[in-house]
């Protein structure tokens, strides 16, 4: 993993996670797919984690699939990420899908800082983040149709809550390239910034100083919005609140606000 992904723990439980295959614009080869899965699994188990900032080193966030890693002799049903496309090797996902979907499964918020390019699978990994901050000149595209393929790195499950149906269809059918500024207008991005990483770190610091149990509960609730019924969501709201109301961290949030000081939460 260490030659593809770096994880650095910063103050207040912020994980600085970077794709570090800069010489290839962080394109996805077999080793990068494996590294992403390892990183996600490591973060899931990391004590004290409160928020993740995901970015790419060098000139790009992620240029998508490394086409040189594809083999003409490979069985059509297999994946460059390992295993077969049909096998659910990572819960509900296959190995490649987990590289994007896995960020949604992390118990804490993930903020993607996107610059340079985010093509194909790169745009889908970006979509796995809770919040997506892009440079206005970032180049993005759902690139698969150029190669006669469909998006299959969990993008379809992720974009449906981010982008209008007709807009998504156009971008998939045409593989049209668009900028970070347009990505914000269309819903692919949350914010536009001239320094996405600095903006992401600033936002991460805010989130890291909230009640971590409330943040995790809020993410669980947000993750339900895609397919849960109204009744299930209403019940889940109540269940989450019961877990945290009058608990030490919730009381600390109140006291810190009243005393105008930084809160001291327990994980």
Automatic annotation (TrEMBL):
Pathway: Lipid metabolism; fatty acid beta-oxidation. CDD domains: crotonase-like. Gene3D superfamilies: 2-enoyl-CoA Hydratase, Chain A, domain 1 (3.90.226.10), Lyase 2-enoyl-coa Hydratase, Chain A, domain 2 (1.10.12.10). It comes from the Bacteria. Pfam families: ECH_1. The keyword Isomerase applies. Keywords: Fatty acid metabolism, Isomerase, Lipid metabolism, Lyase. Its EC number is 4.2.1.17. The keyword Cytoplasm does not apply. InterPro entries: ClpP/crotonase-like_dom_sf (IPR029045), Ech1-like (IPR045002), Enoyl-CoA_hydra/iso (IPR001753), Enoyl-CoA_hydra_C (IPR014748). GO terms for molecular function: enoyl-CoA hydratase activity; isomerase activity. GO terms for biological process: fatty acid beta-oxidation. Belongs to the enoyl-CoA hydratase/isomerase family. PANTHER family: DELTA(3,5)-DELTA(2,4)-DIENOYL-COA ISOMERASE, MITOCHONDRIAL (PTHR43149:SF1), ENOYL-COA HYDRATASE (PTHR43149). This is Enoyl-CoA hydratase. It comes from Sphingopyxis lindanitolerans.
